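User: Can you write out an input/output pair for a complex, sequences first and structure second?

Assistant: Here is one pair. Inputs:
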Amino acid sequence: MKTTDHPREFLLGLYHQLVLIREFEERVKFLFLEGTMPGTIHQCQGQEATAVGVCAALRSDDWITSTFRGHGHALAKGLGVQEMLDELFGATTGCCKGKGGSMHMGNMDKGMLPGIAIVAGGIPLAAGMALAFKMQKKPQVVACFFGDGAVAEGAFHEGVNMAAIWKLPVIFVCENNQYGASTRIDKVMNNTCVSDRAASYVFRGETVDGNDVLAVLDAAQRAAEECRAGTGPVLLELLTYRRTGHSRRDACHYQPKTEKEQWFARDPITRFAEKLLARGDVTEADLAAIKARIDQEITDGVERAKVAPQPTLADLTTDVLA
Amino acid sequence: MKRQGIAEALREGIAEEMTRDERVFCIGEDIGVPGGWGGAFTVTLGLSEKFPGRIIDTPIAELGFTGMAVGAAMMGMRPIADMQYGDFLFLASDQLINNAAKMRYMSGGTVKVPMVMRAPIGATGRGSQHAQSMERYFIGVPGLKVVAVSTAYDAKGMLKAAVRDDNPVMIFEHKLLYGSKGARAEPGAVDATSDIPEEDYVVPLDKAAVRREGTHVTILGWLLMAHFAAAAAEQLAKEGIEAEVIDVRSLSPIDYETIGASIRKTGRVIIVEEGPKTGGVAGEIAAGIMEHCGDALMASVVRVASADVPVPFTPILENAYRPDAVRIAEAARRLVQS
């Protein structure tokens, strides 16, 4: 897929999303290390193109499920910087009123369940959501994000199998970043090609360059069409790499230097920027302006989040039952 | 008015709810197979013909179909999940505890999970893995409602209330109380039939039921133990001891108002539980009684429960494992004399 296949504004929109996720994550990392932000964090620097490419292929009433590494998915699905920062600061104005936190970002009005922090836990949920759409005769699809680590859990098999036998409209999106926490994929799988799994359930799987946002978009659009046509599910394996630790202060000493260098040279944002500049109608200044706008939005957001209203003790026992 | 057993009453309740609300559907193993059993205990027998496409037979995948029920519920459906044996809930517990129960809280009150999970329990000649009393593992999970049905009237009314509730509700049933027929009949079954009204009704999910009034001692039980407690009370009455028997019925939340009113009258309480004594529901209720009406107790709380062993197979040991009317009556005599 070439950048000339899409209008300039659409592509700049994708670029904006990619940079928004990167800058959001970098600022969150700073705030966390600085000690101003509570909790723990699992970040997605380097994996931005998977979230942006998939969500750009969805309609606003389609759904996603996410994981503990969900900030990118949330921003790509349309959650606002402010509601997410507020959530990270534990404020009542957060997208989950401060009761979810980093690992459970979500917003039901924007088609995103709270993130599921049990690695394959969202897979049966997504199958069930798709079952509901099918029974309700609605044309919606659900994109279910999970990592390569989730493939080893039983819930993967059970959820994927049922989606397959009932041809449910689920795009199973495996972000294969080569590591389940600190364990390399080849230590835990004889066949490290995750998309091969689809064939054993008799549906279509595809491995895609997950650091190429347009390749992801194209694959996700085709998958969504198939799901809407009743020929789903589809398994997309998006090859990518985490530029930051699994969580907290993880320094990634388990990632070999040469591997890191190879992957860092394939950074999704740098690569997309190069493609945009090669079009001729996008300038360095255009891209710099986008980044500057995002930086300002995040800076303003952090200032507001730091003073956003914290819950009172009365909030402890609300929202348990409907 | 008609006389029905629990399996029939549940079946009729499910059918009525499915007719009333097209969002209701059933999901589970062997529940709608043509020529099959209608679930292991016949509860859904015949429903797949009546409701095509809404009685969903799943692979043997308890974690998976439970997660699917949670997912469908969040998207506006009202699933009734059928766990073939309660023991399999361990497989499904990640989806029940981490997702169904917590989604509402984690989302700041924006998610609803209106699903029902039905599960049979009870020691019934099947050895250790198709027999455990599972309710103990779920009563301490905030976000879940847990009930146990011991009569056909309650089974239908609580099923209907559960389907209409916006929260995940677990309904525990007992294999010896279903009144399943034909090849699915249970040896040693206990009569749990009720007169079922023709008109629609619900039974609240948070109220205990006083089954027999008495003044000397309160006996609390649920499922099979509610029946055995009633049988013990009959025997005790012949000896001049009037026991008040309460079917606790709602295990989360527990109705301390009804229980407390009884204890304030009798001053003595026995809690009967099928299941190991350690870590059970009875211990929780005992602590709750101390907090709510401990001042009214004239003697220490007594638990009559199973030994701290896995459920044994051989009938002589299984019968020793499960509390019975004789043991309950003995405990009552001792307590009343204390």
